[in-house]
Amino acid sequence: MPPRAIALPVLLLVVAGSAVAWLKLAPPPAVPETSSAEHNASSTFLTASRKRPEVAAPREQDQPASAAPLPHYLRNVAPSGIPAPEVSGPLLRVEARLPEIRQPEPEALPTTGDLIVIRRPQVVSAGTLTGNHLTLHLAHVDALASKDTCPSDLGTDWPCGALARTALRAVVRIYAVTCKKTADIGEREISAICERGPLNLSRWLVEYGWAVPDDTAPEDYTELAAVAKEEGRGQWKRDWEPLLVDSDEADTYAEEQPQAKSSGSSSVSEGGDADLYLDSLSQLEMLPSRNALPEAVATGGSSQNNAELNQ
Question: How far is residue 94's CA from residue 88's CA, in Å, rounded to a whole number?
């Protein structure tokens, strides 16, 4: 092998060894000097980046509610395909509370002279009706209270107030009553002139002795009250005594009233059940004879009239 071919590799090995020896034996480069403020800022930044972010303390008004975990660590429970809500701050647990149920607003009070239709009115006493969130006192009369009693010639008292209420219930029944406001008495409590069809309820109570006219009543009310007292109607009845009915009399009366047992359909419009009902009340001294009642009330009226009253 020629000497030149050997000298070139040897020269490369010597140069490489010299470079390695210089890197190993040469001193390290000098570190540039930095100020202490910059060193502290960099160390603080590194330390803060390795810590968890701190949560701001809740305000005073939020103290009763306990703080929930940070949004970053909350578990996403949204169903698949539905994005989770965006959370911009720490969540707070709130106390459980019942849902608020809003009550319907009561109807506005009618003004004087307005007509009010009371459907399915409730007779509280002989002179008081309720319906449409209103309490209506029949105008122009002083009616008996439900607990009032009246004397009889036997020296005992009989429940004329309860029977007066029952008599008015028998007239009103479930039909609609049309009232005309006359005055305010209290909160949702008014005085009114009420009619069931063509029948004036205040006038009817006076005519049959279940009420007396007051100072505002029409002049004919005084005459009606005098006639009722003279004939011993309603509260002016003096020979009243409890009605005792044995089973034989009850069976006989039922046989004489075949229309009372209709086959599933109401016969009020034909007068059957209404006749039996008012006749039985007359026997209990709750009403005068049905022959003395207005025709529209005694017979129950035609089906067309009943439909109009119920509307």
Answer: 18
Rounded distance, CA 111 to CA 33, Å? 95
Question: Which residue shows structure tokens 């009115």?
Answer: 121
- Token pair of 252, please? 């006989």
- Flag whether pLDDT at 58 surpasses 60: no
pLDDT in tens, 169-180: 999 988 999 999
SS3 106: coil
Give the Cα separation of 42 and 74 in Å (integer): 31
Residue 13 lies in a domain: no
Q: What gap in Å lies between CA 311 and CA 1, rounded to an integer?
A: 134
Please give the residue range of the domain that contains residue 133.
115-310
Asked if the structure places residue 166 within a domain, the reply is yes
Q: What is the dihedral of CA 272, 175, 301, 199, to 10 degrees?
A: 130
pLDDT tens by residue, 219-240: 999 999 999 999 999 999 888 7
Cβ neighbours of residue 163 closer than 8 Å, sequence gap 6 or more: 284, 285, 286
* 308: CB partners within 8 A, 6+ apart: 197
Question: Number of folded domains in the chain?
Answer: 1
Beta strands in 13-121 (DSSP E): 115-118
Asked whether residue 153 is assigned to any structural domain, the reply reads: yes
Residues 150 and 160 sit within 8 Å (Cβ to Cβ): yes
14 pLDDT higher than 90: no
Question: In this structure, is residue 80 part of a structural domain?
Answer: no
Q: Is the pLDDT of residue 210 over 90?
A: yes
Q: What is the pTM of this model?
A: 0.50
Cβ neighbour number for residue 181 with a 10 Å cutoff: 20
CATH number at residue 228: 2.40.50.90
Task: Render pLDDT for 276-302 as a digit per residue (tens, 0 to 9).
Answer: 444 445 544 444 444 444 454 444 444
